[in-house]
Amino acid sequence: MNRIHIKMSFSNSQKGLLPLTIIVISSFLLLIGLYMPVNVHKTFAQQPPCNLSKTQPQDPIDMNTIAFKTLTKTIHVEKELYDNCRGIVPSVLDVSIFTELKEHLANFPKVVSNASFELVTCAKASTSGSVLGCQQGIPITNPMPRATECKQVNIAFPIEMNTVNTDNGIMKTVESEKESFQCRVSGNVPTGFGPLGMKDVVIFTEILEDAGSGKIVKMSQATTCMKPVTPTTSINSKNVICQASKASVIPF
User: Fold this and answer.
1) Distance between alpha carbon 124 and the CA centroid of its chain, in Å?
2) 18 and 129 together in one domain
3) What number of CA atoms fall less than 13 Å from residue 205's CA on the CB side?
4) Is the Cβ–Cβ distance between 72 and 172 less than 8 Å?
C-alpha cells in the first residue's frame, strides 16, 4: 500500500511539471525546425514573386581575371535586389548574374572567346536577415523579347578593368562597361515575366599584346541579359534571358 501511495504521489508531481515540460519540448522542436536544412530549402522553394527594388546597391558590379599557363578567364558579376516579396515570411531576394569569358592564347594572335552565364538567387528574411536559401541555374538563351519605351537607369560605378599575363608572354587587359535600361517588353516573353524588363548590356573590350613581338589584338564583345521587373512568378533561370555576341576584332 505504501508503495502504491508513493508512486501516486510521484505521478502527481509529474502532473504539476507537465505543462512546463511541454513548453520546453515544444520550444526545442521549434528551434530545430527553424534551423533544419530541409525546412530552409522548402521555404526557398516556395519563394514568392518579388519586385525589382527601387533602392539598389551603390556598387553592384565586380570583375576579376586570372591566367593559368595559356588560359585566361574573366568573371564579371552584377547584382540586383528584389523586395516586396509576396509571401507569408517577409523576404528580399538577391539576384546575381555571373558572366564568364574564357580564352586560350596558345595560338595568339588567333583568339577565340567563349562566353557563359550563371544565375544565383538568394532569399533572406527581411525581419532578421537570416538566409532562407540559395539556388543556381543557367539563364535561358531564347530570343530576347522586343523592348520598347526604354529608359536608361543610372549606375554609379559601371566600369571595371583587369590586367594579367600568361606563361607564353601574352598580356591581357579587359575592360567592362555596363548600361541598364528599363523597358516595356512584348513577344518571346517567358511565362510570368510581366510587362516590364530590365535590360542589362555589358560591353567587354580586350587588348591582348605579345610582350616579345609587340603584336597587339583588340577585341570587343557584348552580353545582354534581361530580367523581369514585376514578375508574377518567382525569379529563376527560366525567366532570365542572357545572350552573348561573337567577339570581333577592332581594327586600328
Assistant:
1) 13
2) no
3) 8
4) yes
Q: Is residue 44 predicted with pLDDT exceeding 80?
A: no
pTM of the predicted model over 0.90? no
Write the pLDDT tens digit of every residue in 86-139.
777 889 999 999 999 999 999 999 999 999 999 999 999 998 999 999 999 999
Same domain membership, residue 29 and residue 46 = no
Domain hosting 14: range is 1-35
Residues 2 and 43 in one domain: no
Residues whose CB falls within 8 Å of the CB of residue 236, separated by 6 or more in sequence, listed in order: 119, 121, 135, 137
Same domain, 124 and 171: yes
Rounded to an integer, what distance in angstroms lies between the CA atom of residue 62 and that of residue 202?
12
Q: Clarify whether residues 26 and 113 are in a common domain.
A: no
Measuring CA to CA, which residue among 146, 172, 155, 1 is closest to residue 71? 172
Sign of CA dihedral 172, 244, 78, 55: positive
In a shared domain, residues 214 and 118 = yes
